[in-house]
Amino acid sequence: MVAAQLHFLPRGQFVRVEKRCVTHPLDAGFRKTLGLPRGQRADFRLELANCVGLHVQDFGSHYEAHLDQVDPACDVAEHLRRDAPGTYVLGAVGLGALIGLAIGQSKEAALAGSVLGGLLGLGTAARDDA
After folding, report:
1. Which of residues 74, 98, 113 is at a domain's end?
2. 36 and 8: one domain?
3. In a domain? residue 118
4. Domain around 49
5. At residue 77, what are phi and psi to the nearest 5 degrees?
6. Count of structural domains, the chain
7. Which of 74, 94, 114 is the C-terminal boundary of a domain?
8. Cα separation values, 66 from 5, 63, 73, 85, 95, Å
């Protein structure tokens, strides 16, 4: 199985899988999901033991698979923090801006909130819980 091969590689390292060698992900119990765009046609995920996620991307002629540290079905925020930290920080910037705007009701308050949110996002994304 692909997951067994990936187990020995660093989390996030991609492995190319020829379509003719494996069952379609939906037929193997995966769910269709979204992923950061890399030119793929579709994304599929399967939650493994301890909330590790097997992420398969369909590129038409082949699949690419990798293990996520945290499957988003277990914990979306933790998945973003550990497996997509850039997206996590952008979300923190946006949330900070919204909170700053709601509290201060000005562009300056939104800017200050976005800076604080970005710093908080960077600080927590850099945290290593492994």
Report:
1. 74
2. yes
3. yes
4. 2-74
5. -60, -45
6. 2
7. 74
8. 10, 10, 16, 16, 29
The pair of structure tokens assigned to 26 is: 């939906």
Strand partners, 65: 15, 56
Helix axes 85-104, 76-83, angle to 10 degrees: 120
Tens-digit pLDDT profile for residues 30-79: 999 999 899 999 999 999 999 999 999 999 999 999 999 999 999 999 99
Q: Are 50 and 100 part of one and the same domain?
A: no
Q: Which residue has the tokens 């850099």?
A: 126
How far is 117 from 99, CA to CA, in rounded Å? 9
- Give dist(CA 52, CA 55) in Å, integer: 10
Q: What is the pTM for the complete model shown?
A: 0.83
- Give the CB-side neighbour count of residue 127, counting CA atoms within 13 A: 12
